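User: Predict structure, ligand RRO.
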Amino acid sequence: MLSLTLTGLKLENPLMLAAGIMGTTGGSLKRIAECGAGAVVTKSIGLEPKSGHSNPSMVEVDCGFLNAMGLPNPSYKNFQDEIDTARKGSVPVIASIFGGFADEFSEIAKALDADAFELNVSCPHAHGYGTDIGTDPELVEDITHAVKKAISAPVWVKLTPNVTDIKSTGLAAQRGGADAVVAINTVRGMAIDIETGCPILGNRFGGLSGRAIKPVAIKCVFDLYEVLDIPVIGVGGISDWRDAVEFIMAGARAVQIGSAVGENINIFQDISPCMEAFMAEKQWTLDDIYGMAHEV
Ligand code: RRO
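Assistant: Predicted complex:
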């Protein structure tokens, strides 16, 4: 009842692991796959190994988490084994990749064998990467086009909410040939320790995830659905089955779950039967609820 085909990939259910959570090793990705995710996305991988920003790099705040990990990763040159291990979990494995230029993205995508690629043009706190490029529609189009030209696997583009109008970057990704967009990455934010007056994160500011950002993400998905022909994958603050249904009604073909996996690794197998029971009671299929909020 929940299975679907997304950009040519067969998924048992529309619930995926989002990039950045338990995605650095093949073992943890495989474990999440075995816990009922329909697909898993790796931590974002770049050209060279990177240790990331100084600690504290993640703190809990009201209704969510602030992080400024700083793209820590072992480089694509040391990552194929992890993808291969993750694939033993028998669900599609999507490689999240980042770079500063179109050539960097295509070099990494060409070198890795994965079921699809998610281009990270949306990390909110990495100088020269992420939002530094993902807020410019021309760059988003160029990068997407370069990767599409270089590989045959599906290409997804993960968008930032830290723009005035996410539709313009979504349309840019579509013009570049993207097979899907993923919305949203974290919302730029900051916390200050009032005892010392110091910013709490080592990087001073970072990205907000978790429950607090769900309404922001829902609006972005809703807006993207209205203008795009390619599928939108929703992400941002999903912590139970109702949230997943809400995203699909906003116009998401599938969803990703990040912060909530840190609290409950079984969230995928908790959500799936509840969604199925709800849809059975309403006599709705996934296709029926897809974009339902646009019909009123
Ligand atoms: O590594 C990070 O600090 C990070 C990344 Br790559 C991202 O895409 N989004 C985010 O909130 N943190």
